[in-house]
Write a structure and sequence with these properties.
- The structure holds two protein chains of two kinds.
- Chain A is an alpha+beta fold.
- Chain A has a single domain, classed as Ferrous iron transport protein A (FeoA) (SH3 type barrels, Roll), CATH 2.30.30.90.
- Chain A is built from two helices and five strands; from the N terminus they run E-H-E-E-E-H-E.
- In chain B, the strands form three sheets. Chain B has a seven-stranded mixed β-sheet, sandwiched between helices. In chain B, strands 7-9 form a two-stranded antiparallel ribbon.
- In chain B, helix 17 runs antiparallel to helix 26 and helix 27 runs antiparallel to helix 28.
- Classes of the chains: A alpha+beta, B alpha/beta.
- Chains A and B meet through helix 1, strand 2 and strand 4 of A and helix 3, helix 7, helix 8, helix 13 and strand 12 of B.
Chain lengths: ~80, ~625
C-alpha cells in the first residue's frame, strides 16, 4: 500500500521511498523533515478541494503538508 | 579594546528563534541584506550579565547544513565561517523547540559536531508543557555534552541563564581555543541518536498536542476551513477601512491645521507655497494612510506568528495547483498585499524555479498597501457611504471587489504564464505546519514598528522628493493672465501628451499627470492629485478643501472606476521592478512583467470606462 491510500488517522510505518519519483530537491526536503524509510506517520487531514490534495501528515510531534504525488512514492505498512 | 563579540542564533524553522532574538535584543535591531545575496540579515545588540555588549545574529531557519535554499546556504556559510565579510560567530546558540525535540535534535547534533562553543536554548517549554510534555534539561545536557538552558522567549523566562551560559561558553573557548570536532555521522545515524536522546530527556508525555489537533480539525475542515479563511480575509479588509477612519481623520485634520498655520504665519511667497502646496499637501496626503497600513500588517503578522498562515497555504494549495502553483506561493502573495517587495523576496522559499518565477511575475497584481491610499481616496470621493443588506459598508465592498479583481487577475495570469513563458513540470508542496500559538505582543509590535518605519521613510524620501519635483514642474513657467496654471506648466505639457494615449480609456489630463510620479510609488498618485488641485486653485480657502471633495466635483463615476481598474493592474512602482530584476538576475523578466501588466491595465481601465458609461453611471 502506498501512503496516499492510507485511511485517515491510521498509523503506519514507511517501508520504502521511491526517490526516483521525486525531484531531488523534494527528496532532500522530505528527508530533512524525517520523512524517510522507518518513519512512523499518520494522515491527519486531507485536502479540501477535488483530489483530496494536499495531505497533512503527522510525524512525531510535527505536522507536515505534502502532496499526494509525494505520498504515492512511499510504500507503507499499517501498524 | 577587543572587537565586539558575536553570537548567532541557529536552528530549525519554527523553533521560536525570532521570538528569542526579539527577547534578547529588544528594539536594538538592524535589518539589512547579506552582500551579494537577497537574504535578510537580522542583527541586534544584546548585553551579557556583566554588561558587555554582544552582536547577536538571527540566522535563517534551516533543517540541515546541507543547504537546499538560498536562505539555508547563508546559514551554512556563516556557521562554517565561509561567508566573506561576516565574522565567524564566537558562540552558536542552538534553538530547539521543546515540543519537537526529536526532529530539532537532528540539526542540533550536526551543529554540535562542529566542535565550536555551543549553548542550547530549549525554547517554548511552556507550549511543550501545555501539550503534556515534561522534559529534563539536565538529561539533555548530559546526552549532548553542551549546556542546555530552558527558555520561554515570549515570557522572557531563562534569558539571564542563557546570557550566563553564553559568557561561560566564550570563556571556555578562550582558555582552550582549539576546536574539538566530534566524529561526523550520517543522517540516519543522527536521526536514531536524536530519537534516543529525546526519549531519554522526556520525563512524561501525555495526550499528543490536543489544542493543535482540535484547532486543525476546525480550521482544516473540508467545509468549514475555506469559509473561515475567506471570512477572515473579508474581516481584514473591512477592518482596514472602518477601524482606521478616526485615526485618519485625526491625521488629516492635523495636516490641514498645519497648512492653515503655515499660511497664516509665514510670509507669502515661493517657499511658503512650496511648503504648503508641495510638501504638506503632498506628503501629508500619504502619511494619513499609515493607520490602514499598520492594521493590514497587524493582521498579516498575527496570521504568521499564530501559525495560521501555514494552514491558509494548505487550504489554498489545491486552488493554486489549478493554475500551476503551490500553497507555498500563497505566503509571498499574501505578503504582497502589504508590499510586493517583501512578497517577491519571500519567493525564495519556493524551491521550484518556474514556480518561483511565476509567483514573482504575478506578485504585483496583489493589491499592495501603496494602492490603498489611491483606492481609499477615490472610493471615499465617489462611492456613497451607505450600507448594503444592513451590515456591509458599500465602500468596504468596493474595496473588497478591487482586491478580488487583483487576485483573479493574478490567478488567470499564472495560468497563462505557466502554459507559455514559464512552462514546466507541475511543482510540489512540502511544508512544515508550525504549532498554533498566541502571537506574542512584543514580537507583533516590533514587526509593526519595522513596517511602519519603512513606510514613513518612503514618505520622507521618495514621496517627498517626487512631490516637490512635481510641484516645481507644475508651478513653472508661471501662467499668463486668464490661463490655467496647470496647462501652462511643464508638467501640464507632458501630461497633455500622455493624455492623448489614455484619453480613450476615460482619463483626463489631471489623471494622466498623476500616473507619471506614481511610477516612483503608487501612493504618490494621491499626493500628486492633491498637489495639482492645490496649484490650480488660487483661492486659499479652496486649497484647504479636502482632496476627496475636489475629486467628487471633478471626476465622473466612470472616470473614477476606470482609474481604480488601472491601479488594479498597472506595474506602477519602480522599486518592485528593481527587486524583480535583482531576484531574477536580469532585465528579461522585469520587462515581461512591465509589458503584460501595462497591457492589462490599459485594457481593463478601458473596459471599465466603456461599460460604466454605457450603463449610464
Amino acid at each position: 500500500m502506498t501512503l496516499d491510500q492510507l485511511p485517515r488517522l491510521h498509523r503506519a510505518e514507511i517501508l520504502s521511498v521511491d526517490w526516483d519519483l521525486l525531484a531531488p530537491e523534494e527528496g532532500k526536503r522530505l528527508r530533512a523533515l524525517g520523512i524517510d524509510k522507518g518513519a512512523q506517520v499518520a494522515i491527519a487531514h486531507r485536502g479540501i478541494f477535488a483530489g483530496h490534495d494536499p495531505i497533512s501528515l503527522e510525524i512525531g510531534r510535527m505536522t507536515v503538508a505534502l502532496r499526494r504525488a509525494h505520498a504515492k512514492a512511499m510504500t507503507v505498512r499499517e501498524l | 579594546m577587543t572587537r565586539l563579540r558575536t553570537a548567532a542564533l541557529v536552528g530549525n524553522p519554527n523553533s521560536g528563534k525570532s521570538a528569542l532574538f526579539n527577547a534578547l535584543t529588544g528594539a536594538r535591531q538592524k535589518i539589512a541584506n547579506y552582500p551579494g545575496v537577497t537574504v535578510e540579515r537580522k542583527a541586534g545588540r544584546m548585553f551579557l550579565l556583566s554588561g558587555e555588549p554582544v552582536e547577536l545574529i538571527d540566522l535563517p531557519g534551516s533543517y540541515a547544513l546541507d543547504a537546499s535554499s538560498p536562505d539555508e546556504e547563508v546559514t551554512r556559510r556563516v556557521v562554517l565561517g565561509e561567508f566573506p565579510g561576516e565574522v565567524v560567530p564566537d558562540v552558536l546558540i542552538v534553538v530547539l523547540d521543546a515540543a519537537n525535540l526529536e526532529q530539532h535534535l537532528v540539526f542540533a547534533q550536526e551543529l554540535i559536531e562542529l566542535g565550536r562553543p555551543v549553548v542550547v536554548a530549549l525554547n517554548m517549554v511552556d507550549l511543550a508543557e501545555r501539550d503534556g510534555l515534561v522534559i529534563d534539561p539536565a538529561a539533555l545536557e548530559q546526552a549532548l555534552g553542551v549546556p542546555v538552558i530552558s527558555t520561554v522567549a515570549v515570557r522572557k523566562r531563562g534569558l539571564d541563564e542563557l546570557r550566563g551560559a553564553i559568557s561561560s561558553a566564550e570563556a571556555r573557548a578562550e582558555r582552550d581555543p582549539h576546536r574539538h570536532p566530534r566524529p561526523h555521522i550520517t543522517l540516519p545515524e543522527r536521526r536514531l541518536a536524536a530519537r534516543n536522546i529525546a526519549k531519554g530527556a522526556i520525563l512524561s508525555e501525555t495526550a499528543q498536542h490536543r489544542i493543535h489537533a482540535s484547532l486543525d480539525k476546525l480550521l482544516l475542515h473540508p467545509w468549514l476551513g475555506p469559509p473561515i479563511l475567506f471570512a477572515l480575509l473579508f474581516v481584514i479588509f473591512q477592518a482596514v477601512f472602518a477601524w482606521a477612519d478616526p485615526l485618519i481623520d485625526l491625521l488629516d485634520g492635523s495636516v490641514g491645521a498645519l497648512i492653515d498655520f503655515a499660511n497664516a504665519h509665514l510670509p507669502g511667497g515661493f517657499l511658503t507655497d512650496l511648503l504648503t502646496q508641495g510638501v504638506l499637501a503632498g506628503v501629508g496626503s500619504v502619511v494619513v494612510f499609515l493607520p490602514q497600513i499598520v492594521i493590514l500588517f497587524a493582521f498579516i503578522l498575527i496570521m504568521e506568528q499564530s501559525g495560521y498562515m501555514a494552514r491558509a497555504a494548505f487550504i489554498m494549495d489545491r486552488l493554486m495547483a489549478y493554475v500551476g502553483l503551490s500553497g507555498r506561493s500563497f505566503i509571498p502573495l499574501l505578503s504582497s498585499f502589504a508590499c510586493a517587495i517583501p512578497g517577491i523576496m519571500a519567493t525564495r522559499a519556493i524551491a521550484d524555479p518556474k514556480d518561483r518565477l511565476t509567483t514573482i511575475l504575478i506578485a504585483p497584481l496583489m493589491t499592495c498597501s501603496a494602492r490603498l491610499p489611491v483606492y481609499a481616496v477615490i472610493i471615499g470621493a465617489v462611492i456613497p457611504s451607505r450600507t448594503v443588506a444592513g451590515v456591509v459598508g458599500l465602500q468596504g465592498l468596493v474595496l473588497f471587489a478591487l482586491y478580488v479583481a487583483g487576485i483573479i487577475g493574478a490567478l488567470v495570469a499564472a495560468l497563462v504564464l505557466r502554459r507559455t513563458v514559464t512552462k514546466g513540470a507541475a511543482s510540489g508542496f512540502i511544508m512544515e505546519m508550525p504549532r498554533y500559538q498566541w502571537p506574542p505582543l512584543r514580537d507583533l509590535l516590533i514587526g509593526l514598528w519595522q513596517r511602519a518605519w519603512v513606510f514613513l521613510r518612503r514618505a520622507g524620501t521618495i514621496i517627498f522628493t517626487v512631490t516637490v519635483v512635481l510641484w516645481l514642474l507644475l508651478s513653472f513657467p508661471k501662467a499668463g493672465p486668464g490661463e490655467d496654471q496647470v496647462d501652462a506648466s511643464f508638467a501640464g505639457k507632458i501630461a497633455n501628451g500622455l493624455a492623448v494615449v489614455v484619453e480613450p480609456i476615460g482619463f483626463d489630463r489631471d489623471m494622466a499627470l498623476s500616473l507619471i510620479p506614481a511610477m516612483a510609488a503608487r501612493e504618490v498618485a494621491v499626493s500628486s492629485l492633491a498637489t495639482t488641485y492645490a496649484v490650480s486653485t488660487d483661492d486659499e480657502e479652496q486649497e484647504a478643501v479636502a482632496l476627496q471633495d475636489q475629486l467628487a466635483a471633478r471626476w465622473t463615476l466612470p472616470m473614477a472606476l476606470a482609474f481604480l481598474a488601472w491601479f488594479v493592474f498597472a506595474p506602477q512602482c519602480l522599486s518592485t521592478i528593481a527587486v524583480a530584476r535583482r531576484e531574477t538576475n536580469g532585465w528579461k523578466w522585469p520587462l515581461v512583467m512591465l509589458g503584460y501588466l501595462f497591457a492589462l491595465a490599459y485594457i481593463f481601465a478601458g473596459l471599465t470606462f466603456w461599460i460604466a458609461t454605457a450603463a449610464g453611471l
